Amino acid sequence: MTLTEAQARHAQLAGEIQRHDHAYYVMGQAVISDRDYDRLYRELLDLEQTFPALITPASPSQRVGGAPLSEFKSVRHAVPMMSLDNTYSQAELTEFVQRVQKLLPGEPLEWVVEPKVDGLAVSLRYESGAFTVGATRGDGTQGDDITANLRTIRSLPLSLGARSSHRLDATVVGGPETACGSPLAGGLLEAKTGERARSAQDSAGDLPGDSRCCARDGRTPEPGQPAVPAVLEVRGEVYMTRSGFEKLNAERVAAGEEAFANPRNSAAGSLKQLDSKIVAQRPLDIVLYSLGEVTEGARPGSQWTMLEWLKELGFKTPERTWFCRSAEELLAAIAELDKVRGGFNYETDGAVIKLNDFDQQRRIGATAKAPRWAIAYKYAAEQARTRLKAITVQVGRTGALTPVAELEPVFLAGSTIGRATLHNEDYIREKDIRIGDTVVIEKAGEVIPAVVAVELAARTGAEQGFSFPTTCPECGAATAKETGADETAGAIWRCVNRECPAQVRGRIEHWCSRGAMDIEGGGEVMAAQLVKHGLVRDVADLYTLKLEQLAALERMGEKSAGNFLAGVAASKTRDLWRLLFGLGILHVGAGGAKSLGRHFASLDEVLAAGEDQLQAAQDIGVVIAQSLLQWREDKRNRELVERLRAAGLNFTSQLYQPQAAAGPLAGKTFVLTGTLPTLTREAAAAMIEAAGGRVSGSVSKKTDYVVAGTESGSKLEKAQKLGVTVIGEPELRVMTGAQPKGI
Predict the structure, then answer these.
(1) 738 or 673, which is more confident?
(2) Does a structural domain hold residue 741?
C-alpha cells in the first residue's frame, strides 16, 4: 500500500470511528458491534504503525492519551468566561426576574432552565471544524491548556465534519411556537437517549460574542449538517459520572489507594493530570451549553436555538431543559428538576436560569464578575449539625492512615450518623477542622457521610487542632507523609512497618475476600484472630495452618475450622489474576490484574517483565507498571512468592490470550443472571474470560449475550426489551468450546 492509498483509507476509517463514537457516546445508539468497532480501530492503528505520518491530533488513536506534559501552558480566552451569581431563595429568584424586567421595560421575557452539574467549566476552540485547543476557566480571562486531556473524552468531537447522521428525537412540551403556530422545540426537552449517553450542564455565565442571528432564529434548525463557523468556541462542563465514580473508588480502595472525596473533585483533579493516559482511564464526560468566540458564520439568536444548533453540530447538550415565560413557570421548573435530578448519572446541585434572547442578554450586559441575565439557583443539601468529639485514625492494609470524625450521633437522610470521613490531612487543614467543633455533615454523593463545614461562630476557644500521628496508632512504628503519584487525591500518611498488625489484618482479609482468593470464612473477625494469636504474619502462613490451631480459637469449633481450611486448600487452584489482585500490590486492582492475566501466561512472566513490557498490556500505565517493579524489588515479596509456590498455588493464567489466538469470544460482552444448572456465576465468568470474552454487571445496548438461568430478574427483562440475545448454559458451553453436560 502506498502512502496516498494509506491516507485515503485512514481518513475513511477515522470518519467511520468518529461517527460510531458520536452514535454511542453522545446518542446512546450502538450502530455496530464491539467486535466490528474493534476491527476498524485495529486497522487504523496498524496503518499508523506502518505510516507514522498519519498520526495527527485529530486521529481517534489519540483518545488514549500521549506522553506526559512537564507543565500546562496558559491560554487567554477570546471571550471572558464569567461565573454566575447564586441564590438559595425562591424569593430572590423572583426578585432577579423583576430586576431583569426593569432593565427591559415592556418587553416579553423568555427563560431557559438547565441542570447545574458539579464539574469543571471548560472552553473548546474549533478552527475550520477541527478541535484545536481546550482550556479551563481559570480566572475567567485565561486558563490552563488541557487539550491533551480533553481529547480522551469520547463524547467530545475532535472534528465537526465527521459525526453520526442519526439525530436525537425530542419530546416537546409547551415551548415557543413557530410562525404557523405549531409547537417548536420548547418547554421540557427530554432527549431519548440510551443509558450510556448522558449529559448535563454546570454554571457558565459566558457573555455571547457576536449577536448576529441565524435565518431561523427562534425556530428549530432544519435537519442536516449546519455550517461550521471558521472559529467556534464552545463552553461547557466536564464531569465524572456517578456510576464511574463509584467504580473508580472501589478499584482505588481495592488497590490500597485513598478513595476520592466526590465526583467534582475527581473530575477537576483528573483534568489537571500531566499524564493524559491516566485521564483516559477516568470515567469523564462533557456537556456543552454556551458560546465564546464565533467568526465567519451565522449563529443562533437565542439560548434555546443555540442548544439545538450545538446538538446538530455533534455536541452533547443538556439532556433536560425547561422553557419558561414567567417567574411562576421558573419556580415550577426548578421544582420538577429537583424531583428528577436524583436519576441523572451525574451530580447536580442546582438549576441555571438564563434569559433566552441573546440580543436582550447583550443589552442588559454584566457586572464585573457575572452576567445580569443569568443566575444559578442552588438546592439546599440535606445537612445536620453536631459536635466533633474526637478524630481517630484507621490504618489500612497498605499502611495508609485515614482520619475519621467521631461525632455525637445525629439523624441525617434516613439514618443515624456517628462517624464521618475527613479524607486526609489537606482536607482537615483547608476546612480548619478542630476537635470540639460544631460541624456540618452531609452525605457526600448522598451516600458517604462527610464533614463539609465548621460553625466558626460556635467556637469557645477550647477546641483543639489535630495533627497526624508521627507514630502508628496500631504498632507504634514511624509514619511518613507521601504525596503519591496521583494529584487528584491529597497527601497520604503511611505506617512504614510492613508487620503492623493493622496492615497484616488488612492483607489477610483482602486475600480471603470474594473478589480475590475467595476463601469462605476469612473475613474481618477471622483475620483479627489469626493475627492476634500470632498464627499468621502474611498470606503464605494461611497454607501452614492446622486444624487444632484453628479449633482452639474463640468461637471456632472443629467444623468451622475444617470448612475454613477446605477453603484455603481450594484457593490454591484460583486463577492468576485473583492471586495478583490478592497480593494487594499498590494500584493493582481486579481490572488491572485481569489485564495482566490476559497479557502474560504466568506470574513468573509478570514479575520478569520490564516497565515497557508491562505497559504493553491493556490498561496498564506507568503508575501500575512502576508499582509492580517496586513490589518485585522488595526481597520480602520475592520470598513470599516462593513460599506460595512451595505451598502449591497456581501461578498460570486461564485468561492468557496470545495475539495469534484471541479466543472464540474475543470482543463479546456477556451478562450473567439467575442460577445456572451446573456452573456457579464465578465459573461461568471464568469460562467466558478464558475464551476471550468480557463479563459485565449490567445490561445495555453494548451487551452481546445475556446468559440466563432460573429465577432471572430485571437483567433478563431488560435484555428482552433491548433485543439482546439470551442464551443458557448449554449454548454458552458450545460457544466457549466446552463440552455440553450430558453429551
Answers:
(1) 673
(2) no
